[in-house]
Amino acid sequence: MPTRFSKTRKHRGHVSAGKGRKYHYGYFGKVGMRYYHKQLNHFWRPTINIDKLWALIPTETREAYLKGEKKDTAPVFDLLPSATPRSLARALAEKKITEAGGVVELVA
């Protein structure tokens, strides 16, 4: 019998392929909410650790604060211009900052 008359030629690409079994790996169960054409650029949010915040301030200013030359103002860490909108913190980091005299201000 030539292959063009074979029944499997008509079933190629189908799940059961003529065997009568209707199983497919996505056949059972709920799949959940779908996100078609997910582009991960929309979810790009770099992070910076709380311990590394001093790296965002220029070296001259940082040295002045650490030596105690500037006592009238507090350093301001603005995370948005440095393209790091999210900061990671260890446990009770906000409490540590406020105890040291700093202020944590969330800007939406």
From TrEMBL:
It comes from the Eukaryota. One of its GO terms (cellular component) is cytosolic large ribosomal subunit. GO terms for molecular function: structural constituent of ribosome. SUPFAM superfamilies: Ribosomal proteins L15p and L18e (SSF52080). The keyword Ribonucleoprotein applies. Belongs to the universal ribosomal protein uL15 family. This is Ribosomal protein L18e/L15P domain-containing protein.
